[in-house]
Design brief:
By secondary structure, this protein is of the alpha/beta class. Helix content is 26%, strand content 17%. The strands form 2 sheets. Strands 1-2-11-10-6-3-4 form a 7-stranded mixed sheet, with helices on one face. The structure holds 6-phosphogluconic acid.
Length: 284
C-alpha cells in the first residue's frame, strides 16, 4: 500500500469516512484507549456517567493493557464508568474463553472501578434465556432509552470475524433479524455453541460504535465489508448507529492491505436501506 504521507508516527490516516488506519496493532490499541478516555470525559461531563460495552475476542486485549497503564488509567474517573459486554461465550468467568475474564485480568482488576459498575453477561447459567432477560433488566436499570425504547450506550466496542460477524451476530443468523429483544442467545451453528449477545437494535441505538480490526487475516473481509454490497449483508454492515450515531473503524495497515487509496471514493454506505436489510417490517 502506497504511503499517502498522512502517516505521522502514531497518527492514523482516514482511508474512508470513519475508517482510520494505524501502522501497527499497538497504535490501534492506543487510538482506541484515547477514544475511550475522550468519550468517558464527554459522557461524564454531559450525563454524569459513562456507559460502555466492551467487545470480546483477542483484539481488545492490547487496548485493555494500554488503558490499565500508568499513562492512561489516571485519566478516567472510573467511579463514574459502567462496563458492559457486547457478547459472551457460554463459559464461567474463570474460563480462558470468557470475554469478561480477559477484560478482568487485563483491565478491571488494575483500575479503581467499583465492582458494582461491572455488569458481566452470565452466559454460563444453565437457563441462558432467563440470564438474557436478567441482563436486559440490568440494561434497563442503568441506561437511558432512545426514542424507540432501546438502551443507549455512549460507546460500544466491537470486533469483526473473518466471516464478517460481530459480537455474536453471525452471517445469515435469525438473530440478525431480531427487531425487539435487547439481548439474545443464538445458537452459533459453526461453533456448535450458544452465545449471549446484544442485538442490532441496541447496537444501532449507541452514540458511537467502534470496530477494532487488526491483522492480515482480516484484510479480505474488511475490504468486502467496506466496499461490497453483500447479500445478505455482513452483520458488521448491518450495524448502523441511528441519528447522529457514529460508526468508526480503527484498523492497522495489515488489515487495510487490500484497500487502495483510490477506494476512498468508493465505499459502500455503511448502513441499511430502510428496513429491507432486516426483512420486511413485522418479520422478525
Ligand atoms: C467474541 C467476539 C467476536 C470477536 C470477533 C473477532 O466473543 O468472539 O465478540 O465478535 O470480536 O470474533 O475476534 P478476534 O478479535 O479474536 O479476531
Amino acid at each position: 500500500m502506497a504511503d499517502t504521507g498522512g502517516n505521522r508516527k502514531g497518527a492514523p490516516r482516514e482511508i474512508l469516512p470513519g475508517v482510520k488506519v494505524y501502522a501497527k496493532p499497538a497504535e490501534v490499541a492506543r487510538g482506541a484507549a484515547r477514544l475511550f478516555v475522550d468519550c468517558a470525559w464527554q459522557s461524564i461531563a454531559k450525563h454524569g456517567h459513562f456507559m460502555v460495552a466492551l467487545s470480546g475476542g483477542s483484539t481488545p486485549q492490547m487496548m485493555f493493557q494500554v488503558l490499565a497503564s500508568a499513562e492512561f488509567r489516571g485519566q478516567v474517573d472510573w467511579a463514574k464508568v459502567h462496563v458492559f459486554w457486547g457478547d459472551e461465550r457460554a463459559v464461567p468467568p474463570t474460563d480462558p474463553q470468557s470475554n469478561y475474564g480477559m477484560a478482568r485480568r487485563e483491565l478491571l482488576i488494575r483500575v479503581p472501578i467499583p465492582e458494582g459498575n461491572v455488569h458481566r453477561m452470565e452466559a454460563e447459567k444453565p437457563n441462558m434465556g432467563r440470564a438474557a432477560h436478567e441482563y436486559e433488566e440490568v440494561l434497563r436499570k442503568h441506561l437511558e432509552l432512545d426514542d424507540r425504547g432501546f438502551p443507549c450506550f455512549h460507546l460500544i466496542f466491537l470486533g469483526m470475524g473473518p466471516d464478517g460477524h460481530t459480537a455474536s451476530l453471525f452471517p445469515g443468523a435469525r438473530v440478525t433479524r431480531q427487531t425487539s429483544r435487547w439481548v439474545s442467545t443464538p445458537m452459533v451453528v459453526k461453533l456448535n455453541a450458544r452465545r449471549m449477545t446484544l442485538t442490532l437494535p441496541v447496537l444501532d441505538a449507541a452514540l458511537r460504535v467502534v470496530f477494532l480490526v487488526v491483522g492480515p487475516e482480516k484484510a479480505d473481509i474488511l475490504r468486502a465489508v467496506l466496499l461490497e454490497k453483500a447479500d445478505p449483508p455482513y452483520p458488521t454492515q448491518l450495524v448502523q448507529p441511528r441519528g447522529n450515531g457514529q460508526k468508526i473503524f480503527l484498523v492497522d495497515e495489515a488489515a487495510a492491505a487490500k484497500l487502495e487509496p483510490s477506494d476512498s471514493r468508493k465505499g459502500v454506505p455503511q448502513g441499511k436501506p430502510a428496513a429491507t436489510m432486516r426483512g420486511k417490517p413485522g418479520k422478525s
